[in-house]
Structure prediction request, 206 residues.
Amino acid sequence: MSKMLESFNPESDGWQFMWLILAVFMVGVGFSIERFIYIMLKSAKGRAKFLKDFGENISAKQYDQALSLANASGLPIAKVMASIVASRDSGREGMTAASDAVFLTEAPRLTRYVSMISVMASISTLLGLMGTIYGLIFTFDAVANKPAAERPKALADGIAIAMGTTLLGLLSAVPLLVFVGILNMNSERLIQEMEEKGLKIINSLA
Prediction:
């Protein structure tokens, strides 16, 4: 670990790759935090209670209360439900068109920026590979051009560059890919729920 930390020192060869990988990783973490807050907190938290209360109002035919409840919520699924209830007098086609319009706005907001986290993970891996190639070039140059007395240290430095950048690239990419998997799973679940619950409400009001 201390060797890796030393690799960030501008006096060490290959330090540029280490800082680039770290910068890319931080950008990916920033996207991950923003997406976590939006998907896991703003779009999912309190969803079960909302659906329970909303369903009870619909079952009791208290449509105005249901609409007020949906409008008061910031959940994406609440916006879909509000559009359906507000259009209930226009028939199935009207409710479907209204819910589709809101769905096409809200669904992309759930998946937005998740692909950028994957891009950051790929860039981290590629930067690590570039550092590996740089380290190998450094090593081969040492073998070819350094005096015999200086070769051991030059070889060790070149191998350290190659391994250090590869390791940091992987350490950056793996957590970001884990975030991508978690965020994709939850965003897809929310999108499917919007479709399913919206269709059920349309069928109950049609």
